């Protein structure tokens, strides 16, 4: 009988203690929500910091893609600087932030989720993906972000190549385009964007993740240093943007056609006209040399900011859980 009482008492204590312990442990659902939120916040900050850092170069590149020569683009930039001041070089950056913050947040968050899904599918839970799933995860992440934020990219391109008097703010761009050119115009250039995003995002994420894995395998360190992350991100940006650049030129031409005096009805016709008027290399690869400066800087900053922000948020959450 004494044994029965002690057993019953032990069961009671265990049942009484378990709910208390589980109440202090975050559930899987809560952990997943925090992980998604962390990815969204880190991605948003990464995009904002990277794009703001290269905004003047980005505006110059967009202008150059719509012009026939470097000299014409630089003259336009110089006139803009003289007439509107130094900060005019960041004109359109507010529209860029409106697009980049959700785009980067969605892209980085989607990449983390696609890595997890593909890892489960291929049996790589907790391990680095093999090359092909690594490329697919990046491509799917970029495609998802582009599909959800494309009209904002269209607005940014218009604001970058037009005089200040033409569009007063982001909302004004939406209203004028919708009224004068139709809602379909907001998705002009969408197809080349998606076709360009697949190799760009795929190769960028693939290269960055691969370099981090090679670094861990050869150095014995689990994490690269911030300068190493910047270098890996720069390599990723260089490779990704070089591969997708011609479609980026086509996309910009189609987006700005309404205000630049051109009419482009399809990707192939746009490419044909660019090649016929300006040549293959000078036309479809116009501004690539600037992209080799701007792109690696932006992508390097973006990847590094995302990783460091993720590490910081995880440490903060861990210390909060320990204190509880």
Helix and strand arrangement:
Elements: H1 2-24, H2 28-53, H3 55-65, H4 70-84, H5 93-122, H6 131-161, H7 170-180, H8 190-219, H9 226-255, H10 257-260, H11 267-278, H12 280-284, H13 288-323
Helix pairs in contact: 2-5, 2-13, 3-4, 5-6, 6-8, 8-9, 9-11, 9-13
In words, what does this structure look like?
- By secondary structure, this protein is mainly alpha-helical.
- Among the domains are: 91-187, no CATH class; 189-286, no CATH class.
- The chain has 13 helices and no strands.
- The longest helix has 36 residues, at 288-323.
- It is globular, with a radius of gyration of 25 Å.
- It starts with a helix and ends with a helix.
- Residues 7-25 have low confidence and may be disordered.
- It is a multi-pass membrane protein.
- Mitochondrial carrier mediating the transport of coenzyme A (CoA) in mitochondria in exchange for intramitochondrial (deoxy)adenine nucleotides and adenosine 3',5'-diphosphate.
- One of its GO terms (biological process) is transmembrane transport.
- Belongs to the mitochondrial carrier (TC 2.A.29) family.
- This is Mitochondrial coenzyme A transporter SLC25A42.
